[in-house]
Amino acid sequence: IMWQPGEKYVYFPGVPAVLRRTANQAQRAFTIEQYFSVPVRGTDIKPQIRGPWAETEANDFQPSANGFENQFVRVSNPECAAQPVVVSTNGETQTVYQCLIRLAISSTTPSGTVGISLAMDIDGETVSHANSVFWIILPEEGPAMAAAPLSAGKSNTLEIGEDELWNVTDGDRYLAQISLGGNLSLGSGFVSRSLAQLERLFAPGTFAGEEADAVYVVTAAHVFPITYTNNAHNAISPGILSATAGYAYNLRIRNQMIENAADLVARNIESDIAVLRLRKTAYTELLKIYEFADIAQIKGLEIAPAITPGRPYLVLGFPASRNRVLLAKRVGLLNASGYPTEETSNFGPVKKFKLDAPSSLSTPLAEPGMSGGPVLNEAGDVIGIATEKPNAHEMNSLVGIDLTSVANLEVGYIPNDESCALQFNPFDRLLVLRNAAGECNYGKFGSQVLENHPAARPGLTGEWLVQEVLAFDDETGKSGNGYRAINATALMHGTGIIHGTGIINGTAIINGTSIINGTGIINGTGIISGSVEEINRYLRDGFRMNPDSFKNFVPRGVRILSRPANGDERQEMLGKLIVGLKNPGEKDGPFHLVSIRNFVVWLHMHDRLYDSSRFLKFAGN
Question: Which of 22, 188, 244, 425 sits most deeply, having the most CB atoms within 10 A of its CB?
């Protein structure tokens, strides 16, 4: 858990802290409180920090008397108690070991997001955990510049009622809810027996030697938070997977929980697709759930051969607002003119699609908790998984990953090594792009704009680090082109869609004499905006949740934090807030609003920025 001693605000995993520009020094202090089941030395814990500052030598972290710091953030060495304490969670007591990490954010820190992950050094491996990732949004405040969005969608007027849903029995049967520890849902996924159509998304040999009785769950990668190194000049690393780290994820299938059921064995961060493999120890419970005698009887869902635009599709998942266990079925239509879609913050080479809800649908087409859930055609086959929700208030739609197109990819994954890397972190909005030799192929991000642009380069050379800067939606006067993840853990392009991970973890949370009342805590629907007051009643000593954590956010611009040094004026852009762009052919037209995806796509078409003042608009800071 993370909290602010000065404000008495508390942030559960999955809930972002928000630090306004007017915060005083006392309000800029944070404490991260972590519990372990075994004794831990402070030197075993590795706080890893990245933020919205240019990654230059002057901004590198340096050792300090009690930790490390740069001009923007000061971090203490972890303080770990030698003696255990007894904590109470949900009426059960456990003996655990406490560690505290303190940090302070300077008033000179630019707008953007500071990401913090705690990892452990275990036998030379850096092991991360989904409940040890936190982030602090420093929003760009004040009115946005007058600018035109790059595109504007229209609401669909389909007349399809929920009572007209076809009966896709296997879709219900093979839907899975994913959780960890004492959390509510991290997200949704679907059971599969074959990964043949998805193998191009992962390095060769990832699934080599898999046994014939293997059972998988396919989901979204952003369900599992991303860790990163503390070295300013190293790219984000996905961290060690749970199969190696030794912890497993729980699965709820057909309303029955299987604890410690599956390991995270593969994750394609850039395309936002991940794979869990069930442990053999879970097979007995799984067979009971399905009332089968043999694992071969579990067929799982299959991926459709193609998408048909203009047809309705069924979205399945477990919304956080429906008490953990009630699945949702929603129908959306794929418009022929909008496929594939550019309305995404996904940088992977896989095509993306957008579904619009019928006008008769009164509930959101996708909600927190449904990320990673399957989108099915009328035959019950999977066309993709739900990952994002457009941030336009007047629209009820979702963006999904097109799994039917994976088999046709020229390049399905990025090696993410010293020569080639592409990783976007939806928590702190950081994109790392590395193309050391100029030969890396990113599949043009699955962008039709790049596919159709004759001058588009195959990839920027060198190493780039770009962060998207968010702003409060209610201070912009309009909805932006941002996106929110519809899963548990991510604040994807900002709208406060926090859910199930922000719940008390059964193995590492506060005891009865500290922040949380010891008699067993938050239940029900997860941490979403409508449950904040209920949760506040459980907090002790005046602690409460920050209402800003649940505000809607939209992109206000981007900062280039690192880029190749070419000895020209482009280095002067490092760290500056870019709030508008235009194409060279539009030099007399208005600037367009900037999101991280449209900026990076623009860079691939116009990366010679010698006359950048004509085509990029900068904020004063």
Answer: 188
